[in-house]
Amino acid sequence: MLLRLILFSCLLSLSVQAQPREAQPDAVSPKYWILLDAKDQTAAPAVSPAALASRQLLSLPVDDTDQPVSAWYLNQLRQAGIQPVCQSRWLNAVSARLTTEQYARVAALPFVRSIQAIDPAIIITSLDLPTNPQLAPVMTQIQAPDFTQAGLTGRFVTIGVIDAGFFGADSVNALKHIFAREGVRQVRDYVNDKKTHGKLFRTLETMSDFHGTEVLAAIAGNDPTENLQYGLATDAQFYLARTDQGNREYRGEEDNWVAAMEWMDSLGVRLINTSLGYAKGFSNPKENYEPRQMDGHTSLISRAAQIAADKKGMLIIVSAGNEGDDRSWRIISTPADAQGVLAIGATNAKLWNRIGYSSIGPETLPYLKPNVSCFSLYGTSLSAPVITGFAACLMQANPKLTNKELMAIIEKSSHLYPYGNNFIGYGVPQASRAIALLRNQPLPNTARLVKASGKTCALYVTTNEPVVSVFHKKDATHVLQQEAAKVSNGKLTLHRENGEKQTTVDLKKEVIEVIWE
Description:
disordered N terminus, Rossmann fold, signal, serine-type endopeptidase activity, single chain, alpha/beta, Immunoglobulin-like, 5-stranded mixed β-sheet, 3 domains, hydrolase
């Protein structure tokens, strides 16, 4: 089919009849964001009454990011033979696959501000998952019984889950209670738009289609056959979106993620779990992200996440990543780098320090990442949903809390607060502390500051643990190394490392911050 052209003044010299039949973009043609000029200010907001009510509740204005992409721009692109894949009202952009010739033509259109390549790789932030992950230890770590005793189960809270697939979700024992009460409200498959609701749960395209099922179980799973609770938000409602397919690394579909976010926002969903992160890829090294670009604003997906946080009042909970052992990367992926999202790392079960694979926060960021952490043996994909369930319980207790207030409560409830670090953030959130914060009750004083000099320091500590975690830091937040230190007769001896200025001693029920003079 011949490509039809818009005869803008800058394209008058082009003639369809004079050109040979040109190549059309196919599934392997590069995908780009096409960022557009100003919107039609007369257009009505493209969000539901529920979303408008949520804005009003949170005192957030309805602005141009709620207005749709200009229909006129879309029509002009289609007449030029460009077929948009996804539209983003937040970014005022569309994505499309473009040949080299189409790229040059689109770049010359007067209403196109810029064109940006979509990152070619996505990382599903998990290791190989067993069919029955043992998540019970994390329920104890975060004090799940305290929420149960308070009657907090995520009731009346709606959660959006953006992931790679939900195969078997409607038949897994731990999730049957959700489907029995019709707790999954809607499902969208952005990878295959012809797939029906039922086929999303029953058609296995790749092994990653189990991933979202495991994540959902970690948010709300409860298996009566094993008397085992997997997640906290057992009574929540859900919207599910599949935005990618494939295994650990492959060409990313960043625009699908943004489209899913905007869909959920339009429905008034305020709490999102996404266990996907963008980092490095294989097909075109020139388009890969670099570690220095994990700065919270370089990637469009982080910009979209920040818009969701700042302008839509959404609390986005993101896996920090599993690149901690990868010496060529090590740090968190995007959108976990966005300041407005809650990035979740993973800890060991016993010591509560960073488990080896868990990604660390870049030292160049002016804010702390990850924000908090909790135990997960199988990847930060399964620590993030635990904290999503935690947040849902808080939202049930007080629906008027803003996303920033929720983040503050989760951080302040964590066991290392206020002495966070770029290995595990402020540590493991504690339900008892979060409930006290909800009730405006004073927290017990569990943090103390100690000054030391020289190369060693002897601390007398109160703990039943024979071994405790110690974080040696070059400054207030950046860790040189973590170690497991022995406690002997109630005494802990610290040995100062080269360049060490502060040390955090983690006693779980108490945190000691040592300032070296």
